[in-house]
Amino acid sequence: MFYREAGDFKTTYTDDNQTFPIKFDRYRYYVVLAVAFGVIPFLINDYWANAFLLPFLIYSIAAIGLNILTGYCGQVSLGTGGFMAVGAYACYKLMTGFPDVNIFFHIIAAGGITALVGTAFGLPSLRIKGFYLAVATLAAQFFLVWLFNKVSWFYNYSASGQINAPERFVFGVPVTGANTEAWATYLFCLVFLTISAIIARNLTRGMQGRKWMAIRDMDIAAEIIGVNPLRAKLSAFAVSSFFIGISGALFFAVYLGAVEVGEVFGIQKSFLVLFMIIIGGLGSIFGSFAGAAFLVLLPVVLKLIGVDLLGWPTDIVAHFNLVIVGALIIVFLIAEPHGIAQLWRVAKEKLRLWPFPH
Amino acid sequence: MPEQLIYAMEVFLNGLMAGVLYALVALGFVLIFKASGIFNYAQGVMALFSALTLVGIMDGQVPFSHIINAVFGTEIHHFGWHVPALLAILLTMAVMVLFAWLVQRYIFKHLVGQEPIILFMATIGLAYFLEGVGDLMWGSEIKKLDVGLPQGINLPIETFTDGIFGYGFFIGNLDLVATAIAILLVAALVIFSQYSKEGRAMRAVADDHQAALSVGVSLNFIWIMVWSVAGFVALVAGIMWGTNSGVQFSLSLIALKALPVLMLGGFTSIPGAIVGGLIIGVGEKLFEFAIGPMVGGATENWFAYVLALIFLVFRPQGLFGEKIIERV
């Protein structure tokens, strides 16, 4: 009925190239933004912010980052947790080293530092491919976590080996430390997520994104038609690590406040983010959101049903969580390798023809 | 002889023993990878699961007793019998064969012809699934595994080296047994794959799926068999590590240790897995011994990976792997 291009006339090239060519999509996008920025901050409470909204926003940034590397450029990485740790520790060192600078710039700079580290660990990708590379990125994961554990300069020689986020303000409102309010941290993360998503979306549908996809689909063929594999792969590592670094910084500074590196940024985190993009959809920005929302919500919902409703012990529910996540990964890989994003695409395709499918 | 050198020799020997165990896990990877092109991340969890099952059967635990108790409000935990070790091992093996059949029937049959990286991610999912099932079935507390393997320090070696160097080497009995079993296992696998009909069919499948299919080899049967053999290797590794340090979650992490072994030795080579395992085992122990104290210790966590990473940059197919040839 209303979900189609008909009647929406494009008269300029800019119109033709916009992100959402269908009018309904465009309005939906504005409505989602308006609700996220204008409505939710007034309704939010601490439980929802900590249980769902903050982790969802932060993991979405990480998933977008990993999706650029794995979904668009085809380089599987198991080092996400390590790179998030780089972001977190870079942010911590900057926050304590330059207390007068606004935290906004600290987080951006933490992303930049992670991008450098990520590029360095991306160098082997020029020689090794596929799961050889996946295993090689494990080197980054274990080495970085060990480094942050052992070198006390990174945690300012504190006795516990933890890092704690000092209190910082944006426009006079605290966003890190002990006295934050749910709406402030939520908005702070949301700003980062929105900017990241817009950047990622436009990168991936432009020339750079097409180069990445060419490398993903067949690197030798891409090289022959003039894509420089060195630049394409390293830029994917850099951009991806930038986003992952930002998410790591936010995860530490805004969400948790105190971090012990082995516990928070271990190998499990790498798998979690990888699962998000598999379930959400490889090579789709929307998929990153969907996967993050799904895997953040799943334990919350299971806990509601299992512990609160049925009265089971927590550990059984936690094990069920593992079983369900594992089974879902397999089911998605078999039945729908492109994840929730593909279901969404199919639904939209159907909607375009509805109610006269023939 | 200078003292440091003697210590280094002891570390070297212990590294060799650890390397044998790494090689044992890596063998399971190589078997599945050669026959089906699947890089089985779940190998470590299979070791954990088989060890859990073995303990559960030996103690007569009721499977899923936690859930049953939670749902029905009952209080059952044990059947009240004890199964002898050998019978329990056979029963566990049967469970692993059943597992192999299920995996083949319900997962990898549907994923034939997919890209290797998709298969790899499917096995990560499988690892999570199996870990959850194992915990639900047998409970997640640390268990003691004792199938009658000797433990403690080996006295003859200690007195022997004490007589020569004036310093007794500390080498565990279990490590010696593990080495012997690993060598036996490798020999058995080589004989099996070289001389038996099924072994030849397995190698044919590894060479070329379609050609094997056209001369009448059943891919399905071979794959189930390979997964069963990998399950058997996992069981052996699970018994060794479980006897050493108890059956617990960290057992599944040995899979992560086997990955650099494979990268070093090459994914497709059985000798590669063994040599790679020995190099990693000795390398990380010696590195920890020589460099570890200078940088704060615990270098064993990452040394293997970094070694493999540096190595791969110069020789992407590993020591014994097949040369990677790419065509457009």
Q: Overview of this structure, please?
A:
Chain A has 15 helices and four strands. With 358 residues, chain A is mainly α. In chain A, helix 3 runs antiparallel to helix 10 (229-256). The longest helix of chain A is centred in the C-terminal third of the chain and has 28 residues, at 229-256. Chain A is globular and about 70 Å long. Chain B is mainly alpha-helical and 328 residues long. Chain B has a single domain, classed as ABC transporter involved in vitamin B12 uptake, BtuC, CATH 1.10.3470. Chain B is built from 14 helices and no strands. The longest helix of chain B is centred in the first third of the chain and has 34 residues, at 3-36. Chains A and B meet through helix 6, helix 9, helix 12 and helix 14 of A and helix 3, helix 5, helix 11 and helix 14 of B.
How do you describe this structure in short?
The complex is a heterodimer of chains A (358) and B (328). Chain A is 72% helix and 3% strand.
Q: Judging from the principal axes of the Cα atoms, what is the shape of chain B? A: globular
Distance between the termini of chain B: 59 Å
Architecture of chain B, according to CATH?
Orthogonal Bundle
> What structural category do the secondary elements of chain A indicate?
mainly alpha
Supply the helix-strand structural class of chain B: mainly alpha
Fold-level CATH name of chain B: ABC transporter involved in vitamin B12 uptake, BtuC
- Which CATH C-level class of chain B is it? Mainly Alpha
Shape field of chain A: globular
Cα separation of the termini of chain A:
14 Å
| Global mean pLDDT of chain B | 81
DSSP, total strands of chain B: 0
| Secondary structure: helix percent of chain B | over 70%
Order of helices and strands of chain B: HHHHHHHHHHHHHH
Main sheet specs of chain B: none
H-E string of chain A: HHHHHHEEEHHHHEHHHHH
Q: Detail the poorly predicted runs of chain A.
A: none
Q: Calculate Rg of chain B over CA atoms.
A: 21 Å
Share of helical residues of chain A? over 70%
